[in-house]
Structure formats: C-alpha cells, structure tokens
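Q: Please design a sequence for this.
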C-alpha cells in the first residue's frame, strides 16, 4: 500500500521531493547545445545513454503512464536481480508506439500502435554490465546510441491536448530550420504532479539531422 501510494505521487515522472522547483540534485543525462532554433527550441547532442524501458499496453493515458512508472519505480526500489536500490534521475521519458511527427502543419499522429513506453535514465556510474537485471519481463535494459534531439521546453500543467500542441510547435520550428526529423517524438518530464506549475520543466523532443 505504501509503495503504491509513493508510486502514485511520483507518477509521470518524477523523482525527488520537488515542490518548489528544487530537484534535490537529481542526476540528468549530459548534453551539449549545438544549435538554437529560436522559440524555445534548441538542438542538443546526447551521448550514449543506458536506460530501463517499461512497455505496457495503452496509448499514453493516465492508466498506462501510472502502470509504466510503477514498474520503473519498483525496479529502482529493488525489484531486480541484485535487489539493488538505484538513485532516481530526471527526466523520465515517454513515447507511444507508432507515433510519428509530420514536419508539416498540422502535425499528424499515427496511433496504430498499442504500446506505451516509459524510460528511466541510469546514473552515469552504471554500465550495461553493472546494471542489475529487472525481474519483470515488461522492463528491458538498453543503451541508446548518441543522437541529436530538437527539444522544446515548456512549463506548467500538461495533458494530451497540450502535448500535441507543443509537438506541433516543435514541428513548425524544425520545418523552418536547416534540420529535419529522423524519428518519432518523445516527451520528457522533470517534476512530479505536485510541483508548482510555473516551476515545472517539461519537454517534447524529436531526433533530427541537418
């Protein structure tokens, strides 16, 4: 019961006791800004990153998000072969199977897939060899390759409509730049639901190339 309550309070992302915008020193993946596209969009270069991915049925509704986050929360709380506790990091990333971002206006979304994925980024001290294996088959470990992401940051509350609108804005900016999308969009969240809205850090991103 206590674990379920803790997971519910942290669902959507996001570790640490963050109420006033202090993320309690939570580790984040390193990146370099390689281009500023304006309108709060920047292109970031990320190196390889070790992640734990929870995959559940659904298209990103609250139930799917809650289930996926609870799986990841349990995993870092000790539901792994080493019964090891792993420090929470930010952001938590989510995506829908089959979703694409069309670099014309309006953004078209393909919801033909029925899977929802949420990812936890490991602290830098872990490698694929040292990370404990998950005990739940819905969680997989993988190393994401180095990539460049066009990222739009925004604050405040969010829902499916707001996320769709932010992805549309991102699509417009990228389309008018020297970059083009090379994959599906993702969402990245840095704060839990009880954070003050104007201090929340939310992002939508898409892999890009010149």
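A: Design:
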């Amino acid at each position: 019961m206590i674990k379920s309550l803790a997971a519910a309070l942290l669902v959507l992302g996001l570790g640490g006791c963050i109420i006033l915008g202090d993320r309690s020193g939570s580790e984040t993946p390193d990146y370099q800004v390689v281009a500023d596209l304006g309108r709060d969009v920047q292109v970031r270069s990320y190196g390889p990153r070790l992640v734990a991915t929870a995959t559940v049925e659904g298209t990103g509704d609250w139930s799917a998000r809650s289930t996926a986050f609870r799986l990841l929360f349990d995993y870092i709380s000790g539901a792994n072969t080493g019964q090891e506790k792993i420090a929470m990091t930010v952001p938590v990333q989510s995506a829908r199977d089959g979703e694409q971002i069309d670099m014309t206006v309006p953004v078209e979304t393909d919801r033909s897939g029925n899977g929802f994925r949420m990812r936890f980024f490991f602290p830098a001290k872990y490698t694929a060899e040292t990370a404990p294996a998950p005990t739940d088959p819905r969680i997989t470990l993988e190393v994401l390759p180095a990539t460049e992401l066009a990222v739009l940051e925004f604050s405040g509350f969010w829902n499916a409509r707001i996320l769709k609108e932010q992805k549309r804005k991102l699509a417009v900016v990228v389309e008018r730049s020297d970059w083009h999308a090379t994959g599906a969009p993702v969402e990245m969240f840095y704060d839990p639901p009880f954070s003050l809205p104007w201090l929340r850090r939310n992002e939508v991103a898409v892999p890009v190339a010149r």
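Q: Thanks. Anything notable?
A: The longest strand covers residues 49-57. The beta strands are 31-38, 41-46, 49-57, 92-96, 115-121, 139-144, 147-154, 180-181, 186-189, 202-209.
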